[in-house]
Amino acid sequence: MKPLSGHTQPFAVLGHPIGHTLSPVMHNAALQALGLDAIYLAFDVAPERLLDVLEAMRSMGFCGVNLTVPLKEVAFRGFTDLDASARLLGAVNTVQFLPGGLKGHNTDGKGFVRAVAEAFGMPVAGKTLFILGCGGAGRAVAITAAQEGAQRIILADIDDARPQRLAAAIAAASPDVPVTIAGNNATLWVRHAREAGLLVQASPVGMKPEDRCPLPAEAFQAGQVAFDLVYNLPETCFMRAAAAGGAKAVNGLGMLLHQGAESFTIWTGRPAPVDVMRQSLEAALYKR
After folding, report:
1. pLDDT tens column, 16-44
2. Domain span at 214
3. DSSP assignments along 73-87, one per residue
4. C-alpha to C-alpha distance for 263 and 120, rounded to whole angstroms
5. Which residue from 98, 113, 93 is spatially nearest to 12, judged by alpha carbons?
6. Active-site choice (2, 72, 248, 287)
């Protein structure tokens, strides 16, 4: 990395909490690979402070910001300039600083589709998805999958209201894609999970080594693929349960990589060095 100076351009990721993030690892590797005089940092920002902090960062000369839990929906509600991706997914994970103000983008959907294709060699189109967790991440996955031509989407969450809201959003954006709501019912979860070709774990469960998988091994079977959006552990409880049931499973590192690469290009106007970013992420994760 170039020596820091008064010309160094700052980027950052904001979240609450933020200690788990690997975004600085991949973005600093990318900035260094392209020889840019820039640095990518991480800050813990409470939701009620987000909009004020972002305006201050714009005044300070920040060049781009990523947002993670629980700030994506806060930005969506607070921004007036939203890219089509953010409007579609109802959340902002990438902030672009423009002369006229802040513009919100969402790269999570593209990141998910690219990661699934890379991990399993298949498209999302034509697949039945079981999505566990209908918050911001699950919403991005579900709506994007519907837009990509998923055959059917099954929604599950411990909060009964979330799947209902997400089903309505899918119906508005992709009315031809059938949606089944499994709700907060463990028995239904198992039955419906076995009907899906692609199972997605989109809740925070699994971020801690001691977490227990919300789905038993019986929910999985050979021929299925399972994608856990949690990326801070090489093997999550969801991945272990999926493997025990005969499914092929991966963590969310690929989605982190590809959504980050898309953000990088939005900010810099340059193709992201994806291989460099991938190597830095893998080295950091497996060193952990």
Report:
1. 999 989 999 999 999 999 999 999 999 99
2. 109-251
3. HHHHHH-SEE-HHHH
4. 23
5. 93
6. 72
How many whole angstroms separate alpha carbon 152 and alpha carbon 128? 5
The secondary structure of the chain as a DSSP string is -PPP-TTPEEEEEEESS-TT--HHHHHHHHHHHTT-SEEEEEEE--GGGHHHHHHHHHHHT--EEEE-TTSHHHHHHH-SEE-HHHHHHT---EEEEETTEEEEE--HHHHHHHHHHHHHS--STT-EEEEE--SHHHHHHHHHHHHTT-SEEEEE-SSTHHHHHHHHHHHHH-TTS-EEEEES-HHHHHHHHTT-SEEEE-SSTTSSTTPPPSS-GGG--TT-EEEE---SSSS-HHHHHHHHTT-EEE-THHHHHHHHHHHHHHHHSS---HHHHHHHHHHHHHH-
* Together in a domain, 247 and 270: no
Domain contains 2: no
Confidence of residue 71 (pLDDT cuts 50, 70, 90): very high
pLDDT band at 204 (very low <50, low <70, confident <90, very high): confident
Please state, in angstroms and rounded to a whole number, the distance separating the CA atoms of residues 91 and 106: 7
For 250, phi then psi, to 5°, come to -135, 160
How many percent of the chain have pLDDT more than 90? 90
CATH of the domain at 113: 3.40.50.720
Burial class (CB in 10 A: 0-12, 13-18, 19+), 215: buried
Verify that 165 and 242 share a domain, yes or no: yes
Annotation says 72 is catalytic: yes
pTM value?
0.94
Q: In what order do the strands lie in the sheet with 128-132?
A: 179-183, 152-156, 128-132, 198-201, 225-228, 248-250
